[in-house]
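quick one
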Amino acid sequence: MNPYRNDFPILSTKTNGNDLVYFDNAATTQKPVSVIEAINKYYQEQNANPYRGLYGLSVESTNAYEEARQTVADFIGAKSSKEIIFTGNATGSLNLIANTYGRMALKEGDQVVAAISEHHSNILPWQQVTKEKGAVLSYLYLNASGHITEEEIEQKITGNTKIVAVAQVSNVLGTINPVESIIKKAHEVGAVVVLDCAQSIPHYQVNVQELDADFIVFSGHKMLGPMGIGVLYGKENLLNEMPPFLTGGEMIEYVSEQEATFAPLPNKFEAGTPNVGGAVGLKAAINYIQKVGYDNIKKIEDELTDYALTKMKEVPHITIYGETDITKERCGVISFNVDDVHPHDTASILDADGIAIRAGHHCAQPLMHYMKVAATCRASFYFYNTKEEIDIFINSLKKVRRWLGYGD
Ligand code: 7TS
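structure w/ 7TS:
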């Protein structure tokens, strides 16, 4: 029995009369009791608007928020908690970087390089700013098994490249991208690297100093934390150079009728009342992940993914996209289709058996277009999933074509 399941109340609920099999972890993860209780405790005992109040409760709220920031800084190996900006989610973090650093650094003819497998959140902000500046957005394409090759990195990251924006793990194919090579090449040509860790940090240790990433972004809700809290890490010198993004309360030093000076880091980038409860929940999520341990998480997930890939290959009429060998830079996100069946039908049939998977373009339409498919089904695992759940999934998959009237 998986020892972690009891910590997640939702995993013992039913859906459509069946035990819930939750395989949409790339969209959002479920929350352990410790996270739910930490948020409850904050609202029951510490809630006040931070920074502004000169009374005890406000100071407590400020302390809770800043302790959460320090926990994030330690977790990713940042030099200082000033390098941690809280945002709403990875999308908010990416928009912030594109609209501040991007606007500041790009000029006509410059190049931003992203992977073709990026989530729309790491494409649209760059489309906007490159259009505005007359710069070019170009892509690292994938080989037949879904990987970015060294040759592709060598060719596409050039002297014109000013920003490389790439996900460490693809949310569609589960491919682990060669970010060490990408960062090395980008720095050789003087470009900064924005690493989208939304799909990696729930599963792998991310150390910003070892990676030497200039910016990283992620969302709390994909790593056991609550929705509505995200992180932007940036090197302190870069964050200091950047203009603010949103302006208003909490981010100023002094305001006159026509002018304003801005607060130092990190507050310069955190206009308005922050999500203290969310930050407190994220801190509890980090504590939980550290208690389980990344080695353990990887071992469980690799076993589950290997098991699922092996079983899926035995079911006739299933196409799996991308890498199908767990030993080759991939993790527990599996995109697939059942021959002749629309992914939405597959997802609905599985839902009737209590299985939650995703079907659609996964906010990665350029990748869908590149792979020449309209949509896929996607099963994504976390360390609280089990082989028994995969057996239920496989049995349900076997029924899909028969339900729709195919002979086999
Ligand atoms: N980057 C990647 C790689 C993602 O997978 C996602 C969300 C985001 C950025 C945006 O995160 P958000 O928290 O700001 O929404 N990915 C997915 C997904 O695969 N299914 O639902 C959301």
